[in-house]
């Protein structure tokens, strides 16, 4: 039986490891809709019940893919999507500009668009993807609360916000989940956010739980990234940081070898050990990687092995920021 966890104190029970769907539509090289469709179906067959998407993943493509491929199995999974990241594209699909809009007016429009693309009458978990600082969080969460009253949304969430924003939002309407980047490579949530979530009964959904690929042990040089891979714009993947960050994975690989696992599985098992309220959503568009990730839920690491992993990549050990400056300006709002 697939291991399960509850999202937050009062949220849905889902598979302990979910599926992040972003890479099926953009950011990590060319799309493969056929391979992605097979991965989505296989995920359901393996017992994955937590699927995460957003309206800006391929500017609607990812939601349409999910709706088309597994919309007829809607009662088998908890569906999470997000709004607030907006963009303008040209006729060729190239992005002309991006901006954040967390206003109530845009939330209402974005929700209707997502429902249509996903071929559903409700979103299980609806996140504010990013926050525009000029929009009061009370306005945004007030709109989310209205969606819940209307039955169009079941639970509400925030992504990449500050602990102070989470507290202010939770005072307006119960927040079920906060989605943050969290892995052995990115541990800032351990400073204050994780404690705040636990105080309020909010689940922490961890995206990029294998460090955007670093913790797989398969990235060894910039040449391993496709020309259109967005990681080429990320400081952590800059050539001057590669050797340092690659070396950090050595101890992860050693622990994984001891238990007959892959580095990615060891990294996911470590993250699962951080608390039952932490829910990783590794992303992939390949069935083989999906199966590898899901097997991590059954991987047992000793306390000593977990300590070795914790000490191997201490907070601040990774060289380079996790986003380019434009991206960093939209987090911790």
TrEMBL record:
SUPFAM superfamilies, per database record: NAD(P)-linked oxidoreductase
Stated name of the protein: Aldo/keto reductase
Keyword Oxidoreductase: yes
Domain of life: Bacteria
Organism of origin: Catellatospora bangladeshensis
Entry's Gene Ontology cellular component terms: cytoplasm
Origin organism lineage: Bacteria, Bacillati, Actinomycetota, Actinomycetes, Micromonosporales
Alphabetical UniProt keywords: Oxidoreductase
Family annotation (InterPro entries): Aldo-Keto_reductase (IPR050791), NAD(P)_OxRdtase_dom_sf (IPR036812), NADP_OxRdtase_dom (IPR023210)
Residue intervals of the NADP-dependent oxidoreductase domain: 17-312
CDD domains membership: AKR_AKR13A_13D
Gene3D superfamilies to which the protein is assigned, alphabetical: NADP-dependent oxidoreductase domain
An annotated Gene Ontology molecular function: oxidoreductase activity
């Amino acid at each position: 039986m697939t291991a399960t966890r509850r999202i937050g104190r009062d949220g849905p029970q889902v598979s302990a490891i979910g599926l992040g769907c972003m890479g099926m539509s953009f950011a990590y090289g060319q799309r493969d809709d056929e391979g992605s469709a097979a991965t989505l179906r296989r995920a359901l067959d393996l017992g994955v019940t937590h699927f995460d998407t957003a309206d800006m993943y391929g500017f609607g493509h990812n939601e349409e893919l999910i709706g088309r491929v597994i919309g007829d199995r809607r009662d088998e999974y908890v569906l999470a999507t997000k709004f607030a990241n907006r963009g303008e594209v040209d006729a060729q699909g190239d992005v002309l500009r991006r901006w954040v809009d967390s206003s109530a007016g845009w939330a209402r429009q974005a929700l209707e668009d997502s429902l249509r693309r996903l071929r559903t009458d409700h979103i299980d978990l609806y996140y504010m993807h990013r926050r525009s600082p000029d929009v009061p969080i009370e306005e945004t969460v007030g709109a989310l609360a209205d969606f819940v009253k209307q039955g169009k949304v079941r639970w509400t969430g925030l992504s990449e916000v500050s602990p102070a924003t989470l507290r202010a939002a939770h005072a307006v309407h119960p927040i079920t989940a906060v989605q943050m980047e969290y892995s052995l490579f990115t541990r800032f949530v351990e400073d204050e956010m994780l404690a705040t979530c636990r105080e309020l009964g909010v689940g922490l959904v961890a995206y990029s739980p294998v460090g955007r690929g670093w913790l797989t042990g398969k990235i060894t040089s910039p040449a391993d990234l496709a020309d259109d891979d967005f990681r080429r714009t990320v400081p952590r993947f800059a050539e001057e940081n590669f050797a340092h960050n690659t070396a950090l994975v050595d101890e992860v690989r050693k622990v994984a070898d001891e238990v007959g696992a892959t580095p990615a599985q060891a990294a996911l098992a470590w993250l699962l050990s951080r608390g039952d309220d932490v829910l990783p959503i590794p992303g992939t568009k390949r069935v083989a990687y999906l199966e590898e990730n899901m097997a991590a839920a059954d991987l047992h690491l000793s306390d000593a092995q977990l300590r070795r992993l914790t000490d191997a990549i201490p907070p601040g050990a990774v060289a380079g920021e996790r986003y380019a400056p434009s991206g960093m300006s939209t987090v911790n709002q």
